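seq:
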Amino acid sequence: MKIKSLIAVLSVAVLTLSNSCTAQKTTVCTNPLTYTDIPDNDWIRVGDDYYMVSTTMYFCPGAPIMHSKDLVHWELISYVYDCLNDDDTYNLRNGRNAYGKGQWATSLRYVDGTYYALFIANDQGKTFIYKTKDITKSNWEKTVIPRAFHDASMLFEDGHLYVVWGNGEIRIIELEPDASAIKAGAQEKVLIDSPRQGFNLRAEGAHIYHIGDYYYILEIDWPSGGPRTETCWRSKDLFGEYERKVILSGAFDGRGDGVAQGGIIETQNGDWYAIMFQDHGAVGRIPTLQPVKWVDGWPILGDDTKPVKEFTVNLKESGKNRTWDNDEFDYKKNELDVIWQWNHKPDDSAWSLTDRKGWLRLKTGQIATDITNARNTLTQRTVGPRCWSEVLLDASGMKPGDKAGIVAFQSNYCTIGVEVAEDGSKSLVALTHRNMGRRRGPQQAGAEQPSPDTEALRMPLAQDKVWLKINYVFTPQEEGERADQAFMSYSLDGKTWTKVDATLQMSFSLDYFTGYRTGLYSYATKQAGGYADFDYFHQSAY
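struct:
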């Protein structure tokens, strides 16, 4: 080969390798980050690692921590707490529950080797502050302040700790440096009194930062006739006065819902990004990543304040998305995968992964009247634009009065499963429950009253094993589909499926305030002591 030809070949090879290496240093982000219910995001960077916290309200364990290396792929790794309280509310006793309440809008910070998480439990009127040295492990050290700081954000500043919070009026107060209490003698001050006219929702969801010469407070509001909007206030003095600018506003991804509420962050490469969520109907509030450009000292999100669908992140692609997953229940210890959460506090004596190898056993404990007050309903997030969830149920351990199966879980729900009559006979039963409660948005006034369950199927079951499935359509993908609908089906052999003649019209209801989940349930209406076994849980987006 001639020298010139050899040089040309080597040059092409080097260029190809160089381009390949360059490509590996960036990551393509296509929003949403994950098509699941991960709202009220706050996040931090520790070295090259990123950690995000979200709201899960009444589900236990709570305050999920997710990890990422590239800002695009997020994996659930731990929880801040196991359960907020061991009382009637979280044990679903005496008509009490925490639906729509519990843990809200956590502020996450890292200071001098310690991770801090602060949030309200609005069923208790208190603020919880948790601390840990190891964010990868659950159940942090807890402090309780007997006052509710709504949608709060922490600011650590020169040995001081401030909390900024509020709705309409954004306030500030100083805490003790160790976050144990309100600082002795501290006085609260109103930093921002947001506009009162022309808004469906005034300022809330505050996130405070000290960047350069300015203090910045990011918050959401909702102008009348427009989408939810992210607004920034800034001042060179922590205590004001603050000036205001809209930094993200606009419909996104085929929906009129705006993208707002979340935090901003600087990468190790000096780039800035924001995570903001979008109300997305029944699937919940889903997170998006937005680029941040500093313009005249303001953090402008998206493309000149318009939400962005796809762009390139200046970090090497790494990791995977894992906020839900399949499970074969093949465990050696009685420890569930981190992807699962219970509806309220579980009765740990009434479930097992080891009683029957390769199966989840849900035992009946306290008596329940329906799925809403049944203990030990085990849940996972659903995923859009469409997905299905499937289980294999063995009902051989169920007793008269027991009910077990799967549920599309929210205020409006549908269940399909097995019921046992007083004579021990079993039936396959599917029902829908329509509760016209509060809806997300200004149109919620004048809601209708709840309606009773509608039984769509009841058929004798001459066998113990039955396959159950729920299909979810959140965003239509084919002609004839409608948004936010769920459908039930069953199989007696795991191969041939029969669709139930019923449709659940799902909705994001404020009385529960969470996106739809698939729940595995087993509860008693007559006597405790029975159980239901689940061989696997499979879920797939399509």
